[in-house]
Design goal:
Largest sheet: none
Number of helices: 2
Number of strands: 0
Low-confidence stretches: none
Structural class: mainly alpha
Oligomer: single chain
Number of domains: 1
Order of helices and strands: HH
Strand content: under 5%
Distance between the termini: 8 Å
Shape: elongated
Radius of gyration: 19 Å
Mean pLDDT: 93
């Protein structure tokens, strides 16, 4: 196994993890921004107010995009195991 192969696997793993985390992070950021604007407008400064909407939003994203996320993760793992004999030999 060469250094280039290890770096290629690491880059592919980082890209896959970024693709999997992006929907959750984007929804969480959007909900946090919306609640923050609402708190600024109404002057309700409750720290725990963002928790429930973010929890519901992240849960909804996992329900809607979970199948795609799992498929991407399985495809990455399958490609890794498929390339394993060539990397070792």
């Amino acid at each position: 196994m060469t250094d280039a192969a290890v770096i290629e696997i690491a880059v592919h793993a980082v890209i896959t993890s970024a693709k999997l985390a992006a929907p959750i992070l984007i929804v969480s950021l959007a909900i946090g921004l919306g609640v923050s604007i609402l708190q600024s407008v109404t002057q309700i400064q409750e720290v725990t107010l963002t928790f429930v909407p973010k929890l519901l939003g992240v849960g909804l994203v996992i329900v809607l995009a979970g199948h795609w996320m799992l498929r991407e993760l399985v495809a990455f793992t399958t490609s890794l195991f498929t390339e394993l004999p060539a990397l070792l030999g």
